[in-house]
Write a structure and sequence with these properties.
Elements lengths: L7 E5 L4 E5 L3 E6 L7 E3 L10 E6 L5 E6 L6 E6 L3 E9 L7 E20 L2 H4 L4 E5 L2 E6 L2 E7 L4 E3 L2 E9 L3 E10 L10 H16 L9 H13 L1 E2 L4 E2 L22 E2 L3 H11 L2 H15 L9 E2 L10 E3 L11 E3 L10 H15 L8 H15 L18 H21 L5 H18 L1 E2 L4 E2 L14 H4 L8 H13 L1 E2 L2 E2 L7 H4 L10 E2 H13 L3 H12 L11 E3 L4 E3 L5 H14 L6 H6 L2
Antiparallel strand pairs: 1-2, 2-3, 3-4, 3-5, 5-9, 6-7, 7-8, 8-9, 9-14, 9-15, 10-11, 11-12, 12-15, 13-14, 16-17, 18-19, 20-21, 22-23, 24-25, 26-27, 27-28
Helix pairs in contact: 3-15, 4-5, 4-6, 4-15, 5-6, 6-7, 6-8, 7-8, 8-9, 13-14, 13-15, 14-15
């Protein structure tokens, strides 16, 4: 069995990130950036695919761990029969080269330790050439170089690197692994203790900027730190997750690469940062957004690379067995070239919210918006692939049409409230046409609920967005009917499915075999809507139940397996943490929440 996702911690440097298990093993790390090939891929295979473990030799160990304050400095404490040792892990905030710092500290007594390093470049497929130079161990394969620095003697055996050492109270043993281009000389190591202190200060200083003072301060701060860790500093882009192919069903085929930036997250992300007081991050995200979507609206994608890359070609890796034997392992994401109407609404809404919250205006934004709206004047009538990127036939998805309405609504408000120029009468006419059509074709009058797509009997949790974006007021009976129907038909053990993948009707849209877990962002949306319609106690109960799914470090994934009681899907998931932040703010009596600010037009 693979290590449960709950047992992993995240460390990162705002360029890339690593997953560290409770047993002291780094099982996933892509260098030098989030979407680079991994040098440790044991997460998706086994130890032969690369890992780096530092732990006591004793098998009788009690483990405790925590993040040091409001930072991404991980402290794991191991208590053995002979003493206590602490392993401090972080990725140093870098100037140029990514560097993993692991500092072993003796706390009590004397503990026998071991280090095992297995580097396998290109997702576990390439064994590097290794040589010792001036006290470092240099490992090179193709364009990548890694250099290991330590004061502990290492030995090579069976194409692996080992070290055995003991540590007593008050002693430190540093280990540093740095990436560099193989055609350059390896950089000199940092002072490990200084690197840890400097990195902690950097994170703590960032955390102090938060303006959230509500009841859920600790949970919100950990989610904000995670969101910052998933930000690619050079561009401001935010990856959906630092991982690929962690399954939506254990042993299943619904495994996707999430190391890219999705436009569907645009408004929620912007509002999370703005509501928490992080205007600089919100501005960087908006600028990434504007650069990424610049060009012909017909060529707008649903996702991009962290630098705005457009080609995200998908292929499968045969040599990795997959997490819990969940194959295939996919690199890239073929959904990038799907047509999804909702992303146009997300882009327009994000820019509008930035304008509404007095963010410094971008002179090119309005021209881009008008170009997008011009495209949508006819494109809104087309069927699309929908928010869930289903790989079946296109449909007239209700949520997609609602988000097309959002695009026109926000453009109209921009003219009316900010004095911008545009054919407002024409846009109002189209806005009304979309509204009338959705209410007529996307609503099942017999059951009193909005449905997944026109003429469908299936439900979709994405319809919870209808009151959140202001399409209908929360007190509208059609909203109540939709909420009741979703709770009745899509709720599983207290959490929501995105849609029912088992029905014959939905199989036309989503032909992939297997099921998926409950989708946690949708569950947060339900908590948001329950609060909006006046069922606040029910909302708070659901929110606290969702918080209980986070691991001991406050991290959460995309989905939850209610049968095996395990987190599943890519981990940690930005969209889930964003939803947690926004729901917490909406429920905080002295903090205006993102869900409220989006729906108050």
């Amino acid at each position: 069995m693979s290590v449960p996702l709950e047992d992993y911690a995240l460390i990162g440097d705002t360029h890339t990130a690593a997953l560290v298990s409770k047993n002291g093993s780094i099982d996933w790390l892509c260098l030098p950036r989030f979407d680079s090939p991994a040098c440790f891929s044991a997460l998706l295979g086994d130890e032969s695919n690369g890992f780096w473990k530092i732990s006591p030799k004793s098998k009788d160990v009690t483990i405790k761990r925590r993040y040091r304050g409001n930072s991404l400095i991980l402290e794991t404490e191991y208590e053995t029969h002979s003493g206590i040792v602490r392993v401090i892990d972080c990725m140093a905030i870098r100037d140029k080269h990514p560097e993993v710092v692991r500092l072993v500290e003796g706390v009590k007594g004397r503990v026998q330790m071991q280090m095992e390093l297995v580097v396998r470049m290109d997702y576990g497929s390439q064994i590097p050439w290794v040589k010792s130079v001036d006290g470092s161990l240099n490992m090179i394969a193709g364009p990548d170089g890694l250099s290991l620095w330590s004061y502990v003697e290492t030995e090579g055996k069976d194409k692996k690197t080992f070290a055995h050492f003991s540590i007593s109270e008050g002693q430190y043993r540093p280990f540093e692994l740095v990436w560099y281009p193989s055609y350059e000389a390896p950089p000199r190591p940092l002072d490990a203790r200084f690197a840890v202190e400097d990195t902690q200060k950097w994170w703590e200083d960032w955390a102090k900027k938060s303006e959230y003072k509500g009841e859920y301060k600790d949970q919100v701060m950990r989610s904000l730190l995670t969101l910052k860790a998933l930000t690619y500093k050079p561009t401001g882009g935010i990856v959906a997750a630092p991982t690929t192919s962690l399954p939506e069903q254990l042993g299943g085929v619904r495994n996707w690469d999430y190391r890219y930036c999705w436009l569907r997250d645009a408004t929620f992300t912007l509002l999370s940062f703005i509501s928490a007081g992080y205007d600089e991050e919100a501005s960087a995200w908006r600028e990434w957004l504007l650069r990424a979507v610049a060009g012909d609206p017909e060529e707008m994608q649903i996702m991009y690379g962290v630098g705005g890359e457009r080609s995200l070609r998908e292929y499968e890796i045969e040599w990795l067995g997959g997490y819990e034997s969940s194959k295939p392992v996919r690199i890239g994401n073929a959904a990038y070239d799907q047509f999804q109407l909702d992303v146009y609404g997300e882009v327009i809404d994000a820019i509008f919210q930035a304008r509404r919250t007095n963010m410094a205006p971008d002179p090119s934004a309005w021209e881009l918006e008008k170009t997008i709206i011009g495209f949508l004047e006819t494109a809104w009538q087309q069927p699309d692939n929908g928010i869930w990127e289903v790989r079946g036939s296109r449909k007239h998805f209700t949520h997609s049409k609602v988000m097309a309405w959002v695009a026109f609504d926000r453009a109209i408000q921009s003219v009316e409230k900010f004095g911008l120029d545009g054919p407002i009468d024409k846009w109002k006419k189209i806005r009304q046409q979309i509204h009338d059509q959705v209410c007529e074709k996307g609503f099942d009058k017999e059951r009193g609920t909005f449905t997944q797509y026109y003429g469908s009997k299936s439900l979709d949790s994405a319809c919870l967005m209808i009151p959140l974006v202001g399409f209908l007021p929360p007190k509208d009976q059609r909203i109540k009917g939709t909420v009741d129907a979703i709770q009745r038909e899509l709720c599983k053990d207290g959490f929501l499915l995105r849609y029912s993948v088992s029905s014959a009707e939905v199989q036309q849209v989503d032909p992939l075999p297997g099921q998926e877990g409950t989708f946690l962002p949708c569950s947060f949306w339900l908590a948001d809507v329950l609060a909006l319609i006046g069922r606040k106690k029910e909302s708070e109960t659901m929110f606290k139940k969702l918080l209980s799914l986070t691991n001991d470090l406050g991290l959460i994934s995309e989905e939850y397996d209610t049968i095996n009681n395990r987190l599943i899907g890519n981990f940690p998931q930005a969209f889930t943490h964003i939803s947690l932040i926004n729901t917490a703010m909406g429920l905080s009596p002295h903090h205006r929440g993102a869900s409220d600010s989006r729906s108050q037009n």
